[in-house]
Amino acid sequence: MGGAVEISEPLMSESEKHINGEDEVVPEWKDQITFRGLAVSALLGTLFCVITHKLNLTVGIIPSLNVAAGLLGFFFVKSWTGVLSKLGFSVKPFTRQENTVIQTCVVACYGLAFSGGFGSYLLAMDERTYNLIGPEYPGNRAEDVINPGLWWMIGFLFIVSFLGLFSLVPLRKVMVLDYKLTYPSGTATAMLINSFHTTSGAELAGKQVKCLGKYLSLSLVWSCFKWFFSGIGDSCGFDNFPTFGLMLFKNTFYFDFSPTYVGCGLICPHIVNCSVLLGAIISWGFLWPFISKHAGDWYPANLESNDFKGLYGYKVFIAVSLILGDGLYNLIKIIAITVKEMANSSSKHKLPVMLEIPGSEDSKLLLEQKKRDEVFLRDRIPSWFAATGYVGLAAISTATMPMIFPPLKWYLVLCSYIIAPALAFCNSYGTGLTDWSLASTYGKIGLFMFASIVGTNGGVIAGLAACGVMMSIVSTAADLMQDFKTGYLTLSSAKSMFVSQLIGTAMGCILAPLTFWLYWTAFDIGAPDGPYKAPYAVIFREMAILGVEGFSELPKHCLALSCGFFVAALLINLLRDVTPKKVSSFIPVPMAMAVPFYIGAYFAIDMFVGTVILFIWETVNRKDSEDYAGAVASGLICGDGIWTIPSAVLSIFRINPPMCMYFGPAASS
């Protein structure tokens, strides 16, 4: 849920000057992909997979890490070339095309840690999630359990992850050149990469890297320090520090000193952070205490804290209804915008391109655009190759998917591959206009559809697996178009973009399951009271059961409350769209409000601290905050992410922290 990164004007004009240089030699597509680039991509891909899993398994909010990927890619290759040239080796110059290839490769790799479903649909199939919902819960059958396994997960990713890349390749000219879609994150990344490769930009990039390194070190040292006090169990250490007193601590309102969430707060837009906090106040401040007072009337009083017949049921279903309401609204809105834009562009394209006589500035821009178009169209990826690739992969997948997930019959897999390209197009177009990828919404549509088609006998597994197929195709197709836009603006070959996306996806198919396995073996994943709650695993399994069973077993008034929040999500989104910009920028985002309903308020406090720091920084020195906020945030997130690797290794070897720092009420004398 990362917002597009804003980049200051001077930076853009500097990079524009650089692009105007007709003398710049654009390397051949094969020369843009280098061994050092792939080595750096694998290293960063591993780090970002670790970070994505951590966020996925704790809170489920993942900010955009594209800027960090661009910055760190630039830093590592520059260091590499610097060291080798000092040792007297002749070194190939580091071009912005190579930088773009690294960026593409890293994003493709860590994208699979999200769309691979390690915190959502794959984990929803496991035994722990089945037990959490309860064996006696209608529709929750013991037969619908498939526990994570390293080999089948790697196989599954290889089967489904490449199809999205082939589905839209023939449309790249239409999306980037004809419709001129903006792809805000892709454009911002391109501007950033272009700026690195100018004199003043390289200087700023050097400072940004230093800044990132400083905060990465601080975050790493702090996370290590925190570990010593975290003891055994889940109630020790800084992660359970009752900042606002024990009463509020009981309702999850406390600051847990997490660099990751403070970093997320610095990257995510202010409105997202404020929405998360508002969601936490509504749910943990008012709604849950109110429902708890009716224990014994609305639901049995003596239930476990994670029993679906009690308060836990309200938490999950109200969060689900907000997420679905928001997703449905945005889906309808983006399809409507897409249809309208296409109608407009078909009439627009009949107009002559140039009506006014160009001045020197206009002709410069035209020359620059001509060069970009020429480079973009030079290395064509034949349509027959894309079509053959898609059909061939779909055939392999149709044959092998039922072996991994028996309830998902071959004809259902085939149907999903026939529908998928249309959904992938909608999502890529929507992402190009709004920067909002709705991959998980399309996944949920597949989930409900296939769960209800298959019915009680295996519908849960079939729905979750179909969700995986949809999510992978739709997500990778949008990422590829975003990368084509970045490549177009950095004069990178479309062929090198496609090949680096293929290589990055192949890396992700291996690295994402391996890094997940580190968490799976080291930590108690899915424990409702532990740090790795994996919130979306329960939510996705419940959705699959809903698709099969309907609303039969909800606690009293739960359906009414859920419907109320579903309608509220639709209305809030409508308000955001119909009110003027200066009003709508203060209206909350329902999708962001939904997350703390289920998880708790602590990470909302952390993210809000991040947003307050950024707000003060913007007020004091806007230029400085625009240049360095992304680097500070990336440093905080990466440092904390790096620490999870040694802490996981310590946990695997059963080495526990030496101290437990614990807070309780003072004993009354």
Walk me through the structure.
By secondary structure, the chain is mostly helical. The protein has one domain. The protein is built from 27 helices and no strands. It has helices spanning 9-20, 29-32, 35-58, 66-86, 96-115, 127-133, 150-160, 163-167, 172-178, 184-196, 199-227, 246-250, 259-267, 270-292, 311-348, 360-378, 383-404, 410-434, 439-454, 459-489, 494-522, 535-549, 558-578, 581-584, 590-599, 602-620, 622-652. Helix 7 (150-160) packs antiparallel against helix 17 (383-404), helix 14 (270-292) crosses helix 25 and helix 20 crosses helix 21. It is globular. It starts with 8 loop residues before the first helix and ends in a 17-residue tail after the last helix. 51% of the residues are buried.
The chain-level structural class is mainly alpha
| Terminal Cα span | 50 Å
Mean pLDDT: 83
Please give the count of helices.
Answer: 27
Binned, the helix content reads over 70%
Order of helices and strands: HHHHHHHHHHHHHHHHHHHHHHHHHHH
Shape: globular
Structural Rg: 25 Å
Number of domains: 1
Q: How many β-strand runs? A: 0
Q: Outline the biggest β-sheet.
A: none
Low-confidence stretches: 1-22, 349-358
Family: Belongs to the YSL (TC 2.A.67.2) family.
Protein name: Metal-nicotianamine transporter YSL6
InterPro entries: OPT, YSL-like
GO molecular function, one term: oligopeptide transmembrane transporter activity
